[in-house]
Amino acid sequence: MAATRLLLAAALALLVAAGGGADAQLSAGFYSASCPTVQGVVRQAMSQAVMNSSRSGAAILRLFFHDCFVNVCCSPLCFSASAFQFQSNQVRRLIHPQLQSANAQGCDASLLLDDTPATPGEKSAGANAGGSTFGFDLIDSIKTQVEAACPATVSCADILALAARDAVNLLGGPSWAVPLGRRDATFPNATGAGTDLPGPDSGLDRLVAAFAAKGLTSRDLAALSGAHTVGNARCLSFRTRVYCDDNVSPAFATQQRQICPASGGDDADAPLDATTPDVFDNGYYRSLVSGAGLLHSDQELFSNGPLDSLVRIYSANGDAFFDDFAASMVRLGNVGPLTGTDGEIRLNCRTVNS
């Protein structure tokens, strides 16, 4: 036991010394030599998936957002889980609880990790609960294809970033160069998933604060919320909106109440953008202007507040929305990635390497 404690102390010293700093920058050409076919592999897989079901595109986009939005720490004491290669499972278990609260990761594929008996994952925590984030099987399939082309080279975090970009573009939205070079987390942060992700009943102040905590602006908030132009939401998420809010279109509320009863039926779902639910366009903003935002948090962007003018711009100018959305997706993808020798390149996105 004494030897283990000594090893633990040494491990913690190395971790603190490492400081979690990324020693490499993200780059769109990161895999140009090591895996030049990766973007084509991801694109082909996403094209087939979206052709089979447009909802798969929305699911991947949601996974990317929910992954990047969890596990950010601004403390100088933040460090990476894998800056030290643990030689003892016992030491790893001892260090792990401290890592849970001293994590410096964002877009790190931690959301993709399954629960283990010792470590609850993020998939059933907070806003992810109730099966609201699906698409994991699709990422698994893409990972298998990428591994066949370039073994142990491309991270799950980068695959998810590429798949999200392709999902948007295949559904009719913009494309952009995705900075690459992320590495994968070696543990999830279920607590962060429960606290960092804004809920569907969040007010504007909470939304702005949540984005600011990730280094994102109110303009990023307005643009990235446009991802709700595709996908569905459960009745549980919009019941309060259509029964209680005073800024909801009466016709829209009546329509949604037919889908979502005042009690029960929590899993009944409705499209976030009722006008063009399968197309990535600016219809979401037109809905907000007409008082037909499905979620309370959506309508907060257009409710006699500081973002009203930007919502009006996006509702009238799809190109302006596309430009801002693409730029904000790059900024979101730059939230606290693991790079260099931090983290690992997971061989299976659901589990850490043995």
UniProtKB/TrEMBL annotation:
Site, as annotated: Transition state stabilizer: R62
Keyword hit for Cytoplasm: no
Keyword Metal-binding listed: yes
Catalytic activity: 2 a phenolic donor + H2O2 = 2 a phenolic radical donor + 2 H2O
Gene Ontology BP terms: hydrogen peroxide catabolic process; response to oxidative stress
One GO MF term: lactoperoxidase activity
Keyword terms, alphabetized: Calcium, Disulfide bond, Heme, Hydrogen peroxide, Iron, Metal-binding, Oxidoreductase, Peroxidase, Pyrrolidone carboxylic acid, Secreted, Signal
Pfam family, one: peroxidase
Source taxon at top rank: Eukaryota
Function of the protein: Removal of H(2)O(2), oxidation of toxic reductants, biosynthesis and degradation of lignin, suberization, auxin catabolism, response to environmental stresses such as wounding, pathogen attack and oxidative stress.
The family this protein is said to belong to: Belongs to the peroxidase family. Ascorbate peroxidase subfamily. Belongs to the peroxidase family. Classical plant (class III) peroxidase subfamily.
Stated name of the protein: Peroxidase
